[in-house]
Design goal:
elongated, mainly alpha, about 280 residues
Length: about 280
């Protein structure tokens, strides 16, 4: 118990010093909500789970390598368990982009210009992209349409949105006439992409299930030995045992990461970014 308290206090002091340094440098500790990368709440959860798991395993076993491996497992666990939520959010975003393109098409068909159409869709945009569309409509009052659209693409941060924004930027700069047909085609393409990703996700469900079952079995087996037959793990207490445990942990970690990647769908790279004046 004394060791656990000392580790917890040491970790708290280290975290406090890190926050003070970042604050003095004026740097972010967590990424912005609207920017790319992991969401702050998930990053914080991963940090907490990793620290708690590392302290708990080290306190129970005295293994430095065991604590590091437990921390790594705690860091990965929230992301692995949230894959379904991420997929559903991505599909909702693609559907929202398609619906917004159709809203623009229908509004433009009613003899409205592109800027007026964007402003009209601000209050009624689909929920997944409603904040970004509202900010886009507000920026049109003091910023050019192409720059506003590129900033909008950065905020949505999805390659499907880049296709829609590219069409709108071209229409704004080249004064295209058949923008309604273009928006219809983009919306149809977005919906087809959502259907394709759903089919691939279902096909890879077996791989994701296998990863979780194997990981759970390994954790239960290791935990059972630790609680019921601690003497069986005595060879890992010295330096050679720790090195061997590190090798075994690295093999398992690499296998789980590879299997996890096989069960996921990677997004293509984005190709639109807002032009920042030099």
């Amino acid at each position: 118990m004394t060791t656990l308290i000392a580790l917890a206090l040491g970790g708290g002091v280290g975290l406090g010093i890190t926050l003070l340094v970042y604050g003095a440098m004026g740097r972010r500790v967590l990424p912005s909500l609207s920017g790319p990368g992991p969401r702050p709440e998930r990053l914080l959860l991963s940090v907490v789970v990793a620290v708690v798991a590392a302290i708990a395993v080290y306190g129970l076993t005295g293994w430095v390598v065991g604590g590091l491996l437990a921390g790594l497992a705690g860091w990965i666990a929230p992301r692995a368990l949230s894959s379904r939520t991420d997929f559903r959010a991505e599909i909702d975003k693609v559907e929202a982009i398609a619906s917004w393109a159709e809203m623009l098409r229908d509004t433009i068909a009613a003899a409205a210009g592109l800027e007026q159409a964007i402003g009209a869709t601000g209050p009624i945009a689909p929920r997944s992209i409603a904040p970004q569309v509202s900010r886009l409509a507000a920026r049109l009052e003091f910023e050019s349409l192409p720059d506003s659209l590129r900033r909008f693409a950065d905020e949505v941060n999805h390659p499907t949105c880049d296709f829609v924004v590219a069409g709108l930027v071209i229409a704004a700069e080249k004064e295209a006439r058949e923008i309604g047909a273009l928006l219809s085609q983009l919306a149809e393409t977005a919906r087809d992409e959502a259907k394709m990703r759903t089919r691939v996700w279902i096909d890879r469900a077996r791989t994701r299930t296998s990863v979780r079952v194997i990981a759970l079995c390994v954790l239960l087996f290791a935990g059972g030995l630790l609680v019921l037959n601690r003497s069986y793990l005595t060879p890992y207490d010295d330096l050679k045992g720790q090195l061997m445990l590190l090798v075994i942990g690295a093999i398992f970690a690499g296998s789980f990461v590879a299997m996890d990647r096989m069960g996921r769908i990677e997004l293509p790279d984005r190709f639109i970014a807002r032009r920042v004046p030099r």
